[in-house]
């Protein structure tokens, strides 16, 4: 398989080349130090796999991955980075990356990941996989809190996110302020938050009313 290495750290490029060029089935066809250079190299070299860093100058690895996959869907991109931040992992996967590996990965495991990607599989570093599983579990918990609210409570919560007072909500929803207070008490209990500000922040953070 033909491999293009993309990283803005020369030490990393040297280390990858040192290991990979000893593997009989791997041919290092080129190197690039940022996303823009990677796009140029892809056009010229037509690699099978691009090992792509995320944080680079000029163009980051996520944008470069998206551009590569849009024009060359048959070229596989494996993100190889030191960042396990979910804010990088999810965008990289959405951009079309076939794998997300961390630079501390065992070299033999990296080779196995490359072979798996060539076979149409998706590979994730164990640490990244565990973080995504935790994220999904927490997302389910947040959704469960939302679904526990009654339709009226959701209306109240939405108005809370608008910054409305109890009196304003009562007028808009044609109910008494006492009823508004009762609903708010129930909302806080179901969401397990202490006050209406925390409830509003939670709802906005998880985009409950953008669904």
UniProtKB/TrEMBL annotation:
A molecular function (GO) term: DNA binding
Record organism: Natribacillus halophilus
Protein's UniProt name: DNA-binding response regulator, NarL/FixJ family, contains REC and HTH domains
Domain named HTH luxR-type: residues: 142-207
Biological process, per Gene Ontology: phosphorelay signal transduction system; regulation of DNA-templated transcription
Modified-residue entries (4-aspartylphosphate), positions: 53
The Response regulatory domain, residue ranges: 2-118
Keyword Repeat: no
Source domain of life: Bacteria
CDD domains the UniProt entry points to: LuxR_C_like (cd06170), REC_NarL-like (cd17535)
InterPro entries named in the record: CheY-like_superfamily, NreC/VraR/RcsB-like_REC, Sig_transdc_resp-reg_C-effctor, Sig_transdc_resp-reg_receiver, Tscrpt_reg_LuxR_C, WalR-like
Keywords: DNA-binding, Phosphoprotein, Transcription, Transcription regulation
SUPFAM superfamilies, per the entry: C-terminal effector domain of the bipartite response regulators (SSF46894), CheY-like (SSF52172)
GO CC entries: cytoplasm
Cellular localization per UniProt: Cytoplasm
Pfam families membership: GerE, Response_reg
């Amino acid at each position: 398989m033909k491999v293009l290495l993309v990283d803005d750290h020369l030490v990393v490029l040297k280390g990858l080349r040192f290991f990979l060029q000893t593997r009989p089935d791997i041919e290092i066809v080129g190197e690039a130090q940022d996303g823009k250079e990677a796009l140029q190299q892809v056009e010229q070299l037509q690699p099978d796999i691009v090992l792509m860093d995320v944080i680079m100058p000029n163009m980051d690895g996520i944008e470069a991955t998206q551009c590569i996959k849009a024009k060359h869907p048959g070229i596989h991109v494996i993100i190889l980075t030191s960042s396990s931040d979910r804010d990088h992992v999810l965008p990289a996967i959405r951009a079309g990356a076939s794998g997300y590996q961390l630079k501390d990965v065992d070299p033999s495991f990296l080779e196995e990941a490359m072979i798996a990607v060539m076979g149409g599989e998706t590979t994730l570093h164990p640490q990244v996989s565990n973080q995504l599983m935790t994220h999904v579990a927490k997302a389910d918990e947040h959704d469960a809190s939302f679904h526990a609210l009654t339709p009226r409570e959701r209306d109240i919560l939405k108005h809370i996110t608008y910054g409305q007072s109890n009196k304003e909500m009562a007028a808009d929803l044609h109910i008494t302020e006492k009823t508004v207070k009762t609903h708010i008490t129930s909302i806080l209990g179901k969401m397990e938050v202490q006050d209406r500000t925390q409830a509003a922040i939670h709802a906005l953070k998880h985009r409950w009313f953008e669904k």
